[in-house]
Design brief:
Elements: E1 6-9, E2 15-20, E3 25-28, E4 37-40, E5 46-54, E6 63-64, E7 67-74, E8 82-84, E9 94-95, E10 101-106, H1 113-122, E11 134-135, E12 138-141, H2 145-150, E13 176-179, E14 184-190, E15 198-204, E16 209-214, E17 220-221, E18 227-235, E19 249-256, E20 264-270, H3 271-274, E21 281-285, E22 291-295, E23 300-305, E24 316-320, E25 326-330, E26 336-342, E27 347-354, E28 367-373, E29 383-386, E30 391-400, E31 411-420, H4 421-426
Antiparallel strand pairs: 1-2, 2-31, 3-5, 4-5, 5-7, 6-11, 7-8, 9-10, 10-14, 12-13, 14-15, 16-18, 17-18, 18-19, 19-20, 21-22, 22-23, 23-24, 25-26, 26-27, 27-28, 29-30, 30-31
Length: 429
C-alpha cells in the first residue's frame, strides 16, 4: 500500500501509525545502521528509506533473493505517507550547508549489476543470481571457505547465526558462504545536486582486516560542515602468526574538514581496552559543540568528542540494556534521545534520554514507544528526526502474525510514532 493513515493516539499525545505493510513481503529496517536513512527537506517533508524482501524466499543480511528498496515521503508530519523514487544511487547522501552532497561507499557496492552477475558466474555460484536479488555481502563458493578462513577472514555459512525460524529465516543459498571486506571505501562529492560526482579512495583495506561493518546511516555533518562517517572493523591481533577470525574489534570514523576533499582516520574505541565488542555507531552534534557517539555493544556505549571529532573519550556503558540496532537524535532543547529495538518480551521500541550531552543517561526512566510486538530478533532498528513545533518522529519495523503467515513465523512491517517533548516528560520521565 502506498498511503497509510494514523491509527492510534493516546491521551498524552503520542500517535502510532502503520507506514508500509505488504502481504507476502517482509518490510524491515534492520539494515538501517548501514543503508537506511531519514531526512527532512527544506519544505518540511520527511523522507525515509527501508528494505523489503519476498517473505517466502531467502532474505538475510548477506543476501536477498528478491529485494526492493522502498522510499516514502510524508508532507504532513507523519500522518500520511506516499511511496516515491530514490534520488540517490547508493546511500542517502549527506548535504553540506551550500548543497554539496557527500557520501562514502564500499567499492564492492559500486559494482554494476552486470559486474555482480559476471562475478558469481565466474565463481561457479551463478545459481544465486536473480534480476532483483541484492548481494549485500561478498558471496563465495563453500569450497573456498577453508581457504578464506586460513587468511583469518571471518566467514559466515548457513548455520551461523542460529536464529531459527523467523522473518527472513537468515540463511544463505546452497553451497555458498559470505564474508565482508571491501577493498576500499570511496569518497564521493557532488556539487550539482547529484548530477555528477567526483570520486577518490579514502581508505584501502589490507590483510590486517578480518571483517568490516558499515554504519553510514549514523554519519553527521556538523554546523561547520565537518563530515564524520563511522564504521567498525575487526583486525588481526599484533604478534599473532596463526590465522584467526576473532581479532580486536574497533570503531573508527572518517573525518573531513575540507568538504570531502580528504579524510583522516580516527579511532573511537576498541575491544582490547573495553573487553566488549563495539559495532554500529550513531553520531549526533550537541548544542555545546560536542559530538556524541552511541555505539552498539552488550549495553549501548557512549563516547564524546570536544574537538569536532578529532579525538574521543574512551567509550563507557550508558547502562541502556540493548544489544540491538539503535538511533540517536539531539533535540533543539539539547536533550539527546537514544531509540533502540527491544527484542525480548514485550517486544517493541524504547527510548532513553540524556540531559547533559551524553555524560549520563536516565536508564531508570526508560520510555516505552511500542510494546505490542511479539518478541523477535527481527524487530528492526529505529530512525528518528525532530519536526516542527518540537515534535519527534521515529520509524521502525515490528513483527506480527496475520492469517496465512506460517506458524511461528510472523512477518515484518514498517510502523512509526509521532510525539512532542512534553510527552517524553509525561510518558514516564
Amino acid at each position: 500500500m502506498n498511503v497509510e493513515r494514523m491509527q492510534t493516539q493516546d491521551e498524552a499525545g503520542k500517535q502510532d501509525m502503520v507506514i508500509h505493510d505488504e502481504p507476502g513481503w517482509n518490510s524491515f529496517t534492520y539494515n538501517f545502521p548501514v543503508w537506511g536513512g531519514i531526512r527532512r527537506h527544506g519544505d518540511g517533508s520527511v523522507v525515509i528509506r527501508f528494505d523489503s524482501a519476498d517473505a517466502s524466499c531467502i532474505n538475510d543480511d548477506f543476501y536477498f533473493e528478491h529485494h526492493r528498496q522502498i522510499v516514502m515521503q510524508s508532507r504532513d508530519g507523519g500522518s500520511t505517507w506516499k511511496r516515491i523514487g530514490p534520488d540517490w544511487q547508493y546511500y542517502m547522501p549527506l548535504a553540506l550547508s551550500d548543497g554539496t552532497l557527500i557520501e562514502v561507499v564500499e567499492n564492492t557496492r559500486m559494482m554494476t549489476r552486470a559486474e555482480q552477475k559476471s562475478r558469481v558466474d565466474e565463481l561457479g555460484i551463478g545459481h544465486v543470481w536473480r534480476e532483483d536479488c541484492e548481494l549485500s555481502w561478498q558471496l563465495w563458493p563453500e569450497s573456498m571457505a577453508e581457504k578464506i578462513r586460513r587468511r583469518g577472514v571471518r566467514v559466515w555459512d548457513r548455520a551461523v547465526p542460529p536464529y531459527g525460524d523467523g522473518p527472513g529465516q537468515r540463511w544463505l543459498p546452497e553451497g555458498v558462504v559470505a564474508m565482508n571486506i571491501p577493498r576500499a571505501l570511496i569518497g564521493r562529492v557532488s556539487r550539482d545536486g547529484g548530477g555528477t560526482w567526483e570520486e577518490q579512495d579514502v581508505l584501502c583495506f589490507d590483510d590486517r582486516y578480518l571483517h568490516f561493518g558499515a554504519g553510514f546511516a549514523g554519519s553527521v555533518v556538523l554546523a561547520d560542515d565537518t563530515v564524520l562517517v563511522p564504521f567498525y572493523a575487526m583486525t588481526r591481533r599484533e604478534g599473532i602468526s596463526e590465522p584467526e577470525d576473532t581479532g580486536p574489534n574497533h570503531v573508527h570514523l572518517l573525518r573531513s574538514d575540507d568538504r570531502g576533499r580528504s579524510y583522516a582516520l580516527v579511532k573511537i574505541g576498541d575491544k582490547a581496552n573495553l573487553g566488549v565488542d563495539l559495532s554500529e555507531t550513531f553520531l549526533v552534534e550537541h548544542p555545546s559543540g560536542n559530538v556524541v557517539a552511541l555505539i552498539r555493544s552488550d549495553f549501548i556505549h557512549c563516547s564524546v568528542s570536544e574537538d569536532r571529532g578529532k579525538s574521543w573519550s574512551e567509550p563507557v556503558s550508558t547502562g541502556i540494556p540493548s544489544n540491538a540496532p539503535h538511533h540517536a537524535v539531539c533535540l533543539r532543547s539539547g536533550v539527546i534521545l537514544c531509540f533502540y529495538a527491544r527484542r525480548k518480551p514485550p517486544g517493541g521500541i524504547r527510548c532513553t534520554l540524556s540531559c547533559d550531552g551524553g555524560r549520563s543517561w536516565e536508564v531508570d526512566n526508560e520510555l516505552i514507544i511500542r510494546d505490542d510486538s511479539p518478541a523477535s530478533d527481527f524487530i528492526g532498528g529505529p530512525g528518528a528526526i525532530q519536526l516542527d513545533e518540537d515534535r519527534i518522529f521515529v520509524f521502525y519495523n515490528l513483527v506480527r502474525n496475520e492469517p496465512g503467515d506460517p506458524p511461528g513465523r510472523p512477518h515484518c512491517y514498517i510502523a512509526g510514532s509521532v510525539f512532542g517533548e512534553p510527552w517524553l516528560r509525561g510518558g514516564g520521565f
